[in-house]
Design brief:
single chain, 224 residues, alpha/beta, globular, binds iron/sulfur cluster
């Protein structure tokens, strides 16, 4: 297996239940819900993506021919030899198109707790320590196959999801998530004010307390 990686960097996790925790981010190239090309955005299943995931030309990006090689590169960014707090976030693009058992084993061998951020259209492997699923409206009901995990994160407001959908997600026995977050859409295409989306999310939490607010603190603090 050759892994295509857009970028690897050390920062703080900005969102969800691990917000504030130091983490190595490994962003895999490619997604199954958008090509990443602007000319395809309007026809994509997921149209509000704010992530660069095409190619392997980001910080420490590249092709890694073995799981061990990628795990060692990720380990090289950890600031000390203490293994007790090591934390890696495998993200994308859609990381589960590439993450396999060998990579999970290689990262665990280096002492990492492994978080994965997925759009839910690919079944997750066992061995992931923290699974965040963020389904996209265009794929819901058709391709949303991973319906359990540590956190469900809905970007809101999201075209294609209604308040009734969110009430259903909050209370459905079919969705087995320990935490349910809504995250304000940072709309890059329609010029909708982010602060209005934050207000909409706050109101959603107040109306249905199954939801918790997740802010993109990396954007607020100006870290990567
Ligand atoms: S699923 Fe995630 S990575 Fe893929 S296009 Fe949508 S927001 Fe971007």
């Amino acid at each position: 297996m050759t892994y295509s990686v857009k970028e690897i960097f050390y920062t703080l996790q900005g969102e969800g239940g691990n917000a504030g925790r130091p983490a190595v981010f490994c962003r895999f190239s490619g997604c199954n819900l958008w090509t990443g090309r602007e000319q395809d955005r309007a026809s994509a299943v997921c149209q509000f993506c704010d992530t660069e995931f095409v190619g392997t030309d980001g910080t420490l990006g590249g092709k890694f021919s073995t799981a061990e090689a990628l795990a060692l590169k990720i380990t090289s960014l950890w600031p000390n030899s203490d293994k007790s707090n090591r934390f890696v976030v495998l993200t994308g693009g859609e990381p589960l198109l590439q993450v396999d058992e060998m990579l999970l084993e290689a990262l665990h061998a280096q002492g990492f707790t492994i978080a994965v951020e997925s759009n839910g259209t690919v079944k997750a492997l066992k061995g992931i320590d923290w699974l965040c699923i963020s389904p996209k409206a265009g794929a819901a009901g058709v391709d949303w196959v991973q319906k359990s995990g540590d956190e469900l994160k809905i970007v809101w407001p999201q075209v294609g999801f209604t308040k009734a959908d969110l009430d259903h997600f909050a209370n459905s026995a079919e969705l087995q998530f320990d935490n349910k977050y809504i995250s304000p859409l940072d709309d890059i295409t329609n010029n909708i004010l982010h602060k209005d989306n934050i207000k909409a999310c706050i109101q959603m939490c107040l109306d249905n307390p199954a939801w918790k607010l997740s802010l993109q603190t990396h954007k607020i603090t100006g870290i990567r």
